[in-house]
Amino acid sequence: MTDFRREKILVGGDWIQADAGGRIEVTNPATGAVIGTVPDAGAAETARAVAAAEAAFGPWRALTAAERATHLRRLAQAILDHREALAELLTEEQGKPLAEARGEVGMSAAYIQWFAEEARRVYGEVIPSPWPDRRLLVTRQPVGVVAAITPWNFPSSMLARKIGPALAAGCTVVAKPASQTPFSGLAWGVLGEMAGLPAGVLNIVTGSARAIGGELTANPSVRKITFTGSTPVGKVLLAQAAGTVKKMSMELGGNAPFLVFDDADLDRAVEGAIAAKFRNAGQTCVCTNRFYAQAGIHDEFVKRLAAATAALKVGPGAQDGSEIGPLIDAAAVAKTEEMVADATAKGGRIVTGGRRHTAGAGFYEPTVIADATDAMTFAREEIFGPVAPVFRFETEEEAIRRANATEYGLACYFYTSDLGRAFRVSEALDYGIVGVNEGLVTTEVAPFGGVKESGFGSEGSHHGMQDYLTLKYTAMGGLGR
Ligand SMILES: NC(=O)C1=CN([C@@H]2O[C@H](COP(=O)(O)OP(=O)(O)OC[C@H]3O[C@@H](n4cnc5c(N)ncnc54)[C@H](O)[C@@H]3O)[C@@H](O)[C@H]2O)C=CC1
Ligand SMILES: O=C(O)[C@H](O)CS(=O)(=O)O
């Protein structure tokens, strides 16, 4: 079986160490054991990766769309051929249950396959000319060298959502995965070799985020930055990239509300609540952060949600049957504890969970807290852990107002059996993604992106290509003589 655990970075087709020899340890969050090391590279190695991507850009964009699509189909097939090995490596470094890791790897292949198809639909336009001797053409061209910076919570599929459209459009890529989960990122280099990607088309560097990010945002050869991660880091990158006016797309933090109206199908709402809250132990940007239950069903919803939450199986991701794995690191467990303590100090009532789990230092019990109020920290801040606060509300207007009372605008969810309410509330909620009677909505065929301080740009769908293309208007004149 192919060993995807590469302990080198990929620059211009060569697997190399960091210039100064520095290394970063990678740990298994379920056990705390060191599972390997990767290079602690910095600006110099990144500059060489950008130069390699620049050199590869011309020949790569010169391929026909069909030729690039063929490479991408091979890449998607390589992922599927090695799904189990990739999933096991992902679980080992990130912690999520193996079933979820398999799902993430499958989603990576789906994004690459989708953009293999989109590669051949980068259409242009011919505009009716106001001049008899000119023809007006609009074409879409690849933006150039792309820098992709990704988080630890979906270390494979977050790269797929960037590498896929970038390569499909004719761009070349320098990727920086999160230091907590570098192996799933470096695995893309191995997969690219299997797919026959030419040297320099895909480069992957690990190391000092600040040094690598500093080079990627300042280097004029980088024409676009696509970032998925926290809003504070997104703001740093936006400021740093302003100096060279780069094209930017930002997939940032969230604070998802989940509204349950009196007329909801409660069984369906609880099923959706578990899916929307506890995937990846609550460590996703689209996880519900605030549950709002209308007064008429509030107590029954809390009761059923707590029962379903208490039934979730906590354990190492590699253990059969585990549904809730460890949090990414000790700081994440401590932050979760602080949020729960803050809530209980302010009147929150723990209905189930509310403490570390006996499975190990990295584990926290899936938790439901009732009597939540807007004074509690998790009303404003992303929990990024397995804690479900439940707020009570009276009217539809109140629910919409409170759901929108955040600087974030990524995902939201609500459950109702009333068709008129479904349209009214969906249109009134200020978010990029709305789940109506559904708690799991992510798919490669639909645009994924936020508004407000959850960022801008869309990933997936046919819209996902636009961020990697520029429009060119050509006036073809002198045709009258
Ligand atoms: N909108 C979306 O689709 C998603 C958003 N997120 C958000 O990401 C956060 C959790 O992921 P984390 O990896 O902890 O986020 P993070 O923002 O700390 O790190 C994300 C990436 O940025 C890098 N980074 C950090 N500081 C940097 C700097 N100064 N210059 C360049 N790169 C830098 C990190 O090494 C990592 O690769 C949460 O806020 C979550 O909501 C996570 C996944 C998806
Ligand atoms: O939160 C994330 O990192 C992902 O965007 C969640 S999803 O795309 O897998 O829904």
UniProtKB/TrEMBL annotation:
UniProtKB keywords: Oxidoreductase, Plasmid
Source species, domain of life: Bacteria
Cited PROSITE patterns: ALDEHYDE_DEHYDR_CYS (PS00070), ALDEHYDE_DEHYDR_GLU (PS00687)
EC number: 1.2.1.16
GO biological process: gamma-aminobutyric acid catabolic process
Keyword set includes Oxidoreductase: yes
Molecular function via GO: succinate-semialdehyde dehydrogenase (NAD+) activity
A Pfam entry, by short name: Aldedh
Active-site residues annotated for this sequence: 251
Residue ranges of every copy of the Aldehyde dehydrogenase domain listed in the record: 15-472
Similarity comment: family membership: Belongs to the aldehyde dehydrogenase family.
NCBIfam families the UniProt entry points to: SSADH
PANTHER family the record matches: SUCCINATE-SEMIALDEHYDE DEHYDROGENASE, MITOCHONDRIAL (PTHR43353:SF5)
Descriptive protein name: Succinate semialdehyde dehydrogenase
Source species taxonomy: Bacteria, Pseudomonadati, Pseudomonadota, Alphaproteobacteria, Rhodobacterales
